[in-house]
Amino acid sequence: MSDEPDLCPIARALACVGDSWTLLILRDAFQGATRFDQFQRGLGIASNMLTRRLERMVDNGLLEKRRYQTRPPRFEYRLTDKGRGLAPVLLTLYAWGEHHLPIDARGIELVHRDSGEPIVPVIYDRHRGMPLVPRDVAMVAGPDATPAMRQRAERARAQGEALFSSSMQDTATVETAVADPLAEAAVTPSAEITGQRPQ
């Protein structure tokens, strides 16, 4: 993959957020945490590790560092537009964890902010206005693809032009969804997380 990281959006995204602590910090930021002690208390993370993660997230443009006290100097961390754009990712991880790693206890639930009804996040194709399922998705080589990327795209085409094997069961289910969950989550989220904050 050494010749591809800049060309592959997945590789670029993982380089920015591909760390469990980073995602958990984002989770807590979406739930209102802004200050160092709030993140540390909610996550139980060592202070030096939290400092490094917050600095990296600021450098990557996910959080903005703002001074809220001068003496002694203290700072808070606010989500940027880039950070808020990860809302659909966290919602999808929530749904995946609920489906594939269920437990008897229910610490948090996703509900619609206005109605209070439970929701299940889904990925929609904005152009067709329909939910995506694995068998509907294909990756094709772009004009700047490397030979290795083109080879993988051709192999996928030979296997049925699907990103995932056609033998896979569709995991995208729709129970309650808004017209365009991705757009709403990125701009004005209509969902909220209720219950105890995960530790």
UniProtKB/TrEMBL annotation:
Molecular function via GO: DNA binding
Matching Gene3D superfamilies: Winged helix-like DNA-binding domain superfamily/Winged helix DNA-binding domain (1.10.10.10)
Keywords: DNA-binding, Transcription, Transcription regulation
Domain HTH hxlR-type: residue ranges: 8-105
Protein's recorded name: Helix-turn-helix domain-containing protein
Species this protein is from: Salinicola endophyticus
